[in-house]
Amino acid sequence: MEPHSEMVHWLFAANFLLLGLIMVSRVIVGEEVWELRRWRIYLAPAFFFASGVLLWPVMAFFTNSAIHMVAHGLWAQAMMIAGGAELGLVKGKLHSRWWRLAMPIGLAISGTAFLVHEQNPWLFARSAFLHHLIGWTLVGFAVFPLGLVWRPRSSFFQSGFAFLALAVAVMLFCDRDLAPIFGHLSPLDGIQHR
Amino acid sequence: MEESQQFVRSAPSTRSYSGTRALLVSALGPATALGGLVWAIAQPDRITLLHPHHQGFWWLFVEPPLLVMVVGLVFARLIARPLIADLETYQPEAGDGAA
User: Fold this and answer.
1) For residue A76, what are the CA distances in angstroms to A57, A94, A138?
2) B26 contacts: CB under 8 Å, gap ≥ 6
3) Quick check: B11 pLDDT over 60?
4) Separation of alpha carbons A23 and A167, rounded Å
5) Shortest Cα–Cα distance, A26 to chain B (Å)
6) What is the mean pLDDT of residues A157-161?
7) What is the pTM of this model?
8) Which of A138, A144, B4, B12 is spaced 20 to 30 A from B42 at the CA atom?
9) A194 contacts in B (CB within 8 Å)?
10) What gap in Å lies between CA B43 and CA A153, rounded to an integer?
């Protein structure tokens, strides 16, 4: 009765797509308009925190090796801390700007978790390719939330961060459990089911 | 007096800038839903509802192009609509011309 792991990826993709749209719209309207309704400032941090929480059942039900379990557990913790720190900052409970470092560190840990738990090379199958691509994208694009530590209202850094969310959504939607990538599919991966 | 004249002169450009932003925000949701529709047409095999026999719950529940459409509609209804209303009523303070 459990969903296939590709379905879990698609559900997370939908989550990241909505998050990306929220972040893009925030960049378009500007901080002043965005903050006119109090609930809106909690949206993006709450999405990150919820992503972290939802990664726990993924760790519990969809990991089949120790490295998988450690990577997903670490990743869930990093996302929860990043989301929680942002929630604390927008609520006013946290004041130091250094709490903003939780987000780039969380994304770098998430990217590293993607890279570490993918044991196969890039062209082994589509899922392996996407794990490598998402991992390096998260690590590389962590520079945008890092820039927000010093310039929290910078449209450039906010745009880059929003693009990251949308890019991750697209990549997760492309994921299949068993599918070729650029015509390559290792016979060791099995036979494509649909 | 001079200040108020400056404000009046900058008002039309401020309004048009807000109008552009409102247009962009209002386009995000429908554009996303349209993306999902195009995907569904391009890859109809990703819509399990079109051939639902002998499919389990999850194959019928999680269908990526439909998820994209739902996200676009949810965003348009719950996020974009109140945001555009705020954008239209927002009065930037004098000297805050870019807002």
Assistant:
1) 10, 21, 15
2) B76, B80, B84
3) no
4) 13
5) 9
6) 98
7) 0.90
8) A138
9) 45
10) 40
